[in-house]
Structures are given as structure tokens and as C-alpha cells.
Amino acid sequence: MRVNIKFLSLVLLIIISFLINILGLMNLIPLLISSPILFLSLLIFIYSFTNRKRFKGFKS
């Protein structure tokens, strides 16, 4: 259930940032603000689903 909430919240973040980017393309808000928001939301989405549990060594 936790992954579902995480997935839905990240997809919602991408949709909102895409709509903000559309407003930037229509010159209603600066494109220099809207493009990094979309990039960061996509980066967080990809990083969170490719990040897997890795072996970090034995605890001593």
C-alpha cells in the first residue's frame, strides 16, 4: 500500500508540473521556473523507482 501512495503522489506531482510547464510555454509564467520544476519531478520519479536496496556491508 505504501508504494501505491508513493507512486500516485509522484504521478500527481508530474502532472501538476507538466501543467505548470504548459503555462510557461504560453508565456504566462517564466519558462526558466517551470522547466526545472518538471525536470526535478521527473528526476525524483525515476530515482525513486530505480533505487533498490543495496548491500551496504556488514554492521560491526
Structural class: mainly alpha
The percent of residues in helical segments reads over 70%
Instruction: Characterize the overall form.
Output: elongated
> How many structural domains are formed by the residues?
1
Written description of the protein model:
- There is one protein chain.
- The chain is an all-alpha fold and 60 residues long.
- It has helices at 2-25, 31-50.
- It has one domain (2-49).
- The chain is built from 2 helices and no strands.
- Helix 1 (2-25) packs antiparallel against helix 2.
- The protein is elongated.
Keywords:
elongated; 0% strand; mainly alpha; 2 helices; 60 residues
Write the layout of secondary structure elements.
Blueprint: H1 2-25, H2 31-50
Helix pairs in contact: 1-2
Short recap of the structure:
With 60 residues, this protein is mainly alpha-helical. It has helices spanning 2-25, 31-50.
